[in-house]
Amino acid sequence: MSSPNEFWLDVHRLSQSYKAEGLTTDEREANILREFHSMPLAARRHVLEDMTPLVLHLADLQVLAMAAAGVTDGAPR
Question: What are 14-31's pLDDT values in tens digits?
Fold first, then answer.
């Protein structure tokens, strides 16, 4: 198991990395996918394997975290 805040720090770093890829969603997607396509096939497969559980469970975790933080209007209490 990682340190207590490692997951949340990784979420923050991923968010910052995503934002750094461009000013718009379209620009970010284009930049991210250009790099993805330049990766070797084995690396792309590994990335997809890593993404699957995140995509499947991160939205649920966000709802639980918002409830734990007492968020009802977009801001923690």
Answer: 999 999 999 999 999 999
DSSP state of 74: S
Q: Which domain covers residue 10, as residue numbers?
A: 1-38
- Same-domain check for residues 25 and 6: yes
3-class DSSP string for 17-39:
HHHHCCCCHHHHHHHHHHHHHHC
Amino acid at 32: I
Residues 48 and 72 in one domain: yes
Residues 7 and 34 in one domain: yes
Residues 50 and 77 in one domain: yes
**pTM for this structure?**
0.81
d(CA 10, CA 18): 12
In which element (H, E) is residue 70 found?
A: none
